[in-house]
TrEMBL record:
The gene is X975_24149. It comes from the Eukaryota. This is SCAN domain-containing protein 3.
Amino acid sequence: MLFYKRLESTTTSKDIYNKLKNYLDGNDIPMKNITSCAADGAPNMMGKKNGCLKLMKDANPEMIIVHCVIHKEDLVTKNISPVLNEVLHAVIKCVNTIKVSAKCERLQVIL
């Protein structure tokens, strides 16, 4: 993640693009340095005519646009077989247990 900024009113593609462009300009980061960007498929982000990523691609034709892998995984898991779903939930439970362990918490404080 490059930065986090609140959108004051609407979340149109132009609003999002302008917020990003203002941040990049304010920090002397050229748009050509943005090599790739991922989004969840929302029309204001992925729209082919005037989505935010289209506006970014117009400013930097070399930029690679991808559909977010995590969002794709979420879409796949909605139609997953019961056996794989059980395995997935077991893995998630293990990861969450590790994340809340005291040792992990101490490491997060250090970092």
